[in-house]
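FAQ: What does the model actually see?

It sees only this:
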Amino acid sequence: MNLKNLHTEEKAVQTKVLFEPTQNVISIQIAKEEQLKEHITKIPALLVCVSGGGSYSDESGRKLSLKSGDYVNIEPNVKHWVDAFEESNFLLIK
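And it is asked to produce this:
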């Protein structure tokens, strides 16, 4: 999913609630061809690609390509990891 697709009205300013944070917002930077190793979150999370590009994968076999503006909802208790194809910055909202 991409942030641009959320705003379909023809208005100069639009807002859309994506996620109700319960804990914090974390900035993650991953170097080119590096990986945020597999791990599990105990609460729902939203991962937003701010710049660069990579992929999100999880143990259920889901693999999503991520580029600037793309986001993914991460389910709790599902092992997942993120690979960067280039230097990339992400926001993790919990």
